[in-house]
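Progress narrative, Year 2. Work on Translation initiation factor 2 subunit beta from Methanocaldococcus fervens advanced from sequence curation to structure prediction during this period.
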Amino acid sequence: MSDLESIDYYDYKALLKRARSQIPEYVFQKDRFELPEIEILIEGNRTIIRNFRELAKAVNRDEEFFAKYLLKETGSAGNVEGGRLILQRKISPELLKSRINDFLREYVICRECGKPDTKIIKEGRVHLLKCMACGAIRPIRMI
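Result:
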């Protein structure tokens, strides 16, 4: 007797159990998005994020946009140079990590499904964060 013949088509729990058993395990994992370890170097009065290009690529955002946010939030001048972000003042690693997490919550992570598969689109004069996983769209403030 085949698998289909042994199923009672009106038993909801059995059908649900069968459907769940056919879904791959990775679908149920919540923590598939991992940010690379942030490499922060403090030299004199400057703070350098050495793997800034790698961070921007991991969150799928433009380096300049990401840098502009961090510069504004830390109240510092700085620039992106050779894949590194150079901030023109001493900033504690804890503060930088906190500001990066704020950026992720505001401009990367979908508020509906919690996935990082988003992109920023512009409709008219409004910028929107569109989730490619669930289709949710929400307005965001630009920097």
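Residues 113-143 form one domain. The longest helix spans residues 93-107.
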